[in-house]
Structures are given as structure tokens and as C-alpha cells.
Amino acid sequence: MAALRYLAAMAILGAALASPGMEVVPAHRYGLVQLGNRAAAAKVPPVTFDHWRHRARFTCRLCHVDVGFAMSAGLTAISASTNRSGYHCGACHNGKTLLGGKPVFASCSEGRDVDESPSCRRCHEQRDPDRARKEYEAFAEKYPKKGQARGIDWEDAESKGLVRPIDHVEGVSIRRAPLKMDKEISIESSGWMTNVLFSHRKHSVWNGCEVCHPEIYPSTKSGTKKTSMIQISSGESCGVCHTKVAFPIADCERCHVKPVR
Amino acid sequence: MRRVRGTLLAAALGAGLALAAVPAPLALAQGPAAATQDWKKEFEDICAKTQDAMALPVEELRSLVSRCDELKPRIEKLDESQRKVYSRRLQVCRDLYQFVIESREKG
Predict the structure, then answer these.
(1) Of A157, A188, B20, B36, which one has the greatest count of Cβ atoms within 10 A?
(2) CB contact under 8 A, A209 and B96
(3) Residue B49 and residue A87: Cβ atoms within 8 Å?
(4) 3-class SS at A184?
């Protein structure tokens, strides 16, 4: 019986480790998203979006709630038209919004040929991987690093005041009081790993309640939903963010905060 | 001439005051600009409370969900870009309030 249990545990571990979510992605490619659902029809290259460029300046909530970018691919329906009308990317990329005293470049200006226009190619272009890596390294130099991929430790950077993410865009966001939620939750681990200590306080710096509830976490009642590492590494639950943008799940000890039992 | 100007000024002021006194539901009758402000003001008023959702009484949460449902058809009539963005924003906001209600009911 014990041998069977051991074999089952090893099979689960093997499946989890083999899933894409456990892969250690180089820091400059982590959080890279291709936005291209409509690109082929519009005969333009897809947009290559780096989360790290935006994460240093804005909260997750600002883009995923106020600006309206869905957390799942394909649901936002971004188009040149929505951008030009001042929505989606165009909520900030409109040539008028100031960031650090400079206007943010406008997205999707009408009547331009993507192949000829440097401003279109700023987003609609297949990236030179070497250039992308160098840009990331120059950007990341001033921030603390952590984890197997030595990615930016955003939590540490935020607590040291190295990043001060903006949570409000005039004309887009609603004025409201900052979220005060500091409840910590211990999530029981059924395997050999120690329990997960989930901090609402740490998450609420970047997010609002509606980023996670109910879409990602449909219940708050303890023990209602069991989530396995296979599900997480496939991009469910914690894996919605922690396989794409927030620190990767391969850094086990950042959630399972105590040593292995 | 001065008398005519004075009468016109008084009439304009009177009309302005009368319009300002019109209650919110009748604001639609004031033209497209007022109607635009009307749905957006209602949207902002409803969704400004998401950060406090856990502290709101169930009755208030139910009222917010109802207001979301009432606002939805008006948002669906907006132009495509606005509709895409605000339908999603309203849905996210409604789902959170509904989620808090259900969490309370489940204990």
C-alpha cells in the first residue's frame, strides 16, 4: 500500500514537473504575451507585449480592471478601432497621457502602413530576441532579483520603494479608497510540501478583489476547492498569474514558506 | 434695447435653473451629452464600492447587483468600443458583489 502511494505521488510530481508551468523561463521572456487574435485578419504582425515593461509602472488592477483587459487570452477583443477610440492600449497610448512628463506614444494611428511606419512596428513586430534580452537586462539592473531564473523580485522592489505602481488613470479609473485587506490564509498541502501561506496584503498592493474573485477563485470557503499542482502548473488557480507574470511556481519556497516536511 | 437684453438674460437664467432641477431619470431627455454622462455616472457610482465589498451589508450588495442589471442594457446600446470595455467592467463588478453575497450566505 505504501509503495502504491509512493508511486502515485511520484507520478503526480512527474506530471507537474513536466508541465509547461514548471519550466524555468529566462527572465527577459517571462510574461511575454502575443496579442494576435485579429492580427492575421488585419494583415498585421501580432503585438508582442512584455509585462515587465508595464509592471514597473502600473498595478495589475489598473489594466485588468479599469482598462478592461481580460485575464484569459482572446476575451478582450482589442482592435485598432478600440485603441483609436481611447480604450484598451489607447487608454494610455494616445499621445496625450503624460508619464514622467512625456506623452505616451499613440497606438494604432489611422491610415498608416504597418510595414512602413516605425510607430506601428513599435508594437506590431517580431522581436529580435537578442535586443529584447539586452533591453530587459538594462531595465532590470536596478531591481533586486530572486528565484531560479533570477527574475525581478517585484515584491521586494515595491517594499523598498524602487517601484511605485500607478493605480489610477484620469478619465478611465474610478476614484476609490485603497484596498485594505490583510487577512492571511494557510492553505493546507496534502503532499510532502509544507502549507502555503497566502497573504492578501501582499496581493492587494497590485490587485483589487475583482481581479481574483470570482473568476480565478470562485469560493472563499476553506476546503471548498482542492487545487493540485498539476492544475496550477497548467495555468489554473494561482497559475493564472504565477505561470505567466508573477514569480514562477518553480520557486516552490516562495509559497510553501517552511522547509519540506 | 437694454430692457430686451435684461429680459432675455433672465429667461436664460430661469431655463438653466429649471434644467438643473430636473431629477436624474429625466436627464436623458436633455440630449445625448447628458445621457452619456448619466450612464457613466451610474457605472462609476456602482463600481466605486468594489474595494469595500466585504464590508457592505448584504442588502446594499443586492441593490448594487440590481443596479448593475438595470445598467447593462444601456451599456449594450453604446458604440462598439465603449460597449466592449464597459460591458466587461460592469460584469466584473457585478460578479464580485454577487460573489460576496454568496460567500456570506454559505457562511
Answers:
(1) A157
(2) yes
(3) no
(4) strand
Taking phi first (over 0 means left), then psi (-120 to 50 degrees means alpha), and beta for anything else, what does residue A150 get?
A: left
Answer whether residue B13 is part of any domain. Answer: no
Q: Is A61 exposed, middle or buried (0-12, 13-18, 19+ CB in 10 A)?
A: buried
Crossing angle for the helix pair B58-76 and B32-47, to the nearest 10 degrees: 150
Nearest to A174 among B44, B81, B85 (CB): B44
Q: How many CB pairs under 8 A join A and B?
A: 71
Domain ranges for chain A, please list them.
Answer: 32-139
How far apart (Å, rounded) are the C-alpha atoms in residues B1 and B92? 59
Architecture of domain A32-139: Alpha-Beta Complex (3.90)
What are the two backbone dihedrals, phi and then psi, of residue A197, each rounded to the nearest 5 degrees? Answer: -105, 110
Number of Cβ within 10 Å of residue B24's Cβ equals: 10
- The dihedrals phi and psi of A120, each to the nearest 5 degrees, come to -70, -40
Residues of chain B numbered 42-101 and touching chain A (CB < 8 Å): 44, 47-54, 79-82, 84-86, 88-89, 92-93, 95-96, 98-99
Q: Can you give the pLDDT at residue A237?
A: 92
pTM of the model: 0.82
B15 assigned to some structural domain: no
Q: Are A68 and B107 inside 8 Å of each other by CB?
A: no
Residue of B nearest to A90 (CA): B81
- Structural domain includes residue B32: yes
Q: Do A174 and B48 touch (CB under 8 A)?
A: yes
Does A85 reach chain B within 8 Å, measured CB to CB?
yes
* Full DSSP string of B61-94: HHHHHHHHHHHHHHHHTS-HHHHHHHHHHHHHHH
Segment A109-137, tens digit of pLDDT:
777 677 777 778 889 988 888 999 999 99
Contact at CB, B48 and A88, closer than 8 angstroms: no
Domain holding B67, by residue range, is 24-106
Number of domain units in chain B = 1
Residue range A56-106, pLDDT digits in tens: 999 999 999 999 999 988 889 999 899 999 999 999 999 999 998 999 999
Q: Which residue has the cell 443586492?
A: B62
